[in-house]
Specification:
Blueprint lengths: L9 H10 L6 H29 L5 H28 L2 E3 L2 E2 L7 H5 L6 E5 L5 E5 L6 H20 L8 H23 L4 H5 L7 H19 L4 H5 L6 H20 L7 H29 L4 H15 L8 H25 L1 H5 L6 H19 L2 H7 L14 H33 L6 H6 L1 H4 L16 H4 L3 H9 L11
């Protein structure tokens, strides 16, 4: 019941009673919007900076723009039909009905998420509706940035050769026919959700799907130019680290926001996220030193990412010691698949996965999902979602079955993404080329966008005295058409 204060104008009291209903928890709502914004910052500017810096100079603009475009396109598609297909009324056991999430009444009502049904040994059942204490608008925003970052992670497999117009078609199609299926199946009340497959914050929905779909799309798009595959150095390592830092710090919202409340479980999730990421980074770096005699900065970033990915499906479900073990696994197994298995596999060699998204996201996500089935602690499972009676195999009881469920859930996500991504690429290929023409592949950003990341003379230009100055130095350059020592930079 609202309490009227005679010292405050009635019009203002009426407004606040509507804008701040009794069910609204301002702290939870604030944390949810902050978490969503942190996840958004992982993409824009985080991955925009990381992608624009980790690639060869001539692809900096194109790579950054692929990420920027995907974020904008997903926002519009999400509120128009994507959210309801992921979290709305069921159309199929793995898919929701397409409806807009733009109505004022819908957005200001209390957020609600699907029912989990748990059957007890005596045959009775108990159901619980997750009802966060904030409006639907916060939930739509929070889930939107997750969908957006999934497409941007997928783009990491396709940098340096995908036709930008094909990418503009790919984003809404893949969001509609692939992402929404995984999200509804595991989070929105679909069959994997009801069966008890656990994905705390997107190890399967986001990372496994983006890794598998990215690898599949890379197969259909084809490889970069031979020259780019042979030499593809980052154009700015320090900016790459800045983007990676935004990714790491933003993961506090990525995993900390998924209890849908600023509670004990969200605190555990944030701490475990940092524990696993730090452990994985250190393990990857140590392996680089042991086998290659030098610590690699790019390798450290890859180890950081695999740790963040691995802990995501388990962040609020495991204890700190398990987060360390998962960090050891995520820092070593993806390192082995990338450094050893990749070089010996004909399939992995044939498919040009530009940033190794298959290893850093698909492999790490699968490890995290299976590890969740091993290490999920019963009390933390109940804090996250009461009545599921879930537990990891390490804790005995029914935990052994959880590992099997996790593997089956992963196989479904993998199979769906291979099939649907292939269909989407084939369909787009019938309309326009998936791959850039050879001329654009040779030139890069200037040919594709008419823009360059760095206006440095010497990158394939002839010296023009009218543009670059006069005098004997200019005449000498005009004659040789070569920059002096120290001016030309090999990108």
């Amino acid at each position: 019941m609202s309490t009227w204060n005679t010292t405050v104008p009635l019009a203002y009291q009426a407004y606040t009673s509507l804008a701040v209903p009794e069910w609204l928890n301002k702290g939870d709502n604030a944390w949810q919007m902050i978490s969503a914004t942190l996840v958004g910052l992982q993409s824009v500017p985080g991955l925009v900076i990381l992608y624009g810096s980790i690639v060869k100079k001539k692809w900096a603009v194109n790579s950054a723009f692929m990420a920027l475009y995907a974020f904008a396109a997903v926002v519009l598609c999400w509120v128009t039909w994507g959210y309801s297909m992921s979290f709305g009324h069921q159309m199929l056991p793995f898919w929701g009905k397409a409806m807009p999430a733009l109505g004022q009444k819908f957005l200001i009502q209390q957020a609600k998420l699907p029912t989990t049904t748990h059957y007890f040994h005596d045959g009775t059942q108990e159901s619980a509706m997750i009802t966060p204490f904030y409006p639907m608008a916060s939930m739509v925003y929070f889930q939107c940035v997750f969908a957006a970052i999934t497409l941007i992670l997928l783009a990491g497999s396709l940098l340096g050769r995908m036709n930008i117009r094909a990418w503009m078609m790919f984003v809404p199609l893949w969001l509609t026919f692939s992402y929404t299926v995984g999200a509804f199946s595991l989070w929105g009340g679909g069959f994997l959700f009801q069966w008890g497959v656990m994905d705390y914050s997107g190890g399967y929905v986001i990372h496994l799907s983006s890794g598998i779909a990215g690898f599949t799309a890379a197969y259909w798009v084809g490889p970069r130019s031979t020259k780019d595959r042979e030499r593809f150095p980052p154009n700015n390592v320090l900016l790459m680290l800045a983007g990676a830092g935004l990714l790491w710090m933003g993961w506090a919202g990525f995993n900390g926001g998924d209890p849908y409340s600023a509670n004990i479980d969200s605190s555990m999730a944030v701490l475990n996220t940092n524990i696993c990421a730090a452990t994985s980074l250190l393990v990857w770096t140590c392996l680089d030193v042991i086998f290659f005699k030098k610590p690699s900065v790019i390798g450290a970033v890859q180890g950081m990412i695999t740790g963040l990915v691995c802990i995501t499906p388990a962040a609020g479900l495991v204890q700190g010691w398990a987060a360390i073990l998962m960090g050891v696994l995520s820092g070593s197994i993806p390192w082995f698949t990338m450094m050893v298995v990749h070089k010996r596999s004909r399939l992995l060699q044939k498919v040009d996965d530009t940033l190794g998204v298959f290893h850093t996201h698909a492999v790490a996500g699968f490890i995290g999902g299976v590890s969740t089935g091993l290490f999920a602690e019963p009390t933390l499972c109940n804090l996250f979602l009461p009545v599921t009676n879930s537990r990891g195999a390490f804790y005995g009881g029914v935990g052994g079955a959880q590992v099997f469920k996790q593997i089956v859930g992963a196989l479904f996500i993998m199979a769906w993404n291979v099939i649907v991504t292939s269909v989407i690429c084939v369909v787009i290929g019938m309309v326009l080329p998936l791959r850039m023409p050879e001329e654009q592949l040779a030139i890069g950003d200037d040919a594709v966008h008419g823009e360059e990341a760095y206006a440095l003379w010497g990158d394939g230009e002839k010296y023009d005295v009218n543009r670059h100055g006069n005098g004997s130095y200019g005449n000498e350059m005009l004659e040789t058409s070569k920059p002096p020592t120290g001016v030309g930079i090999d990108f």
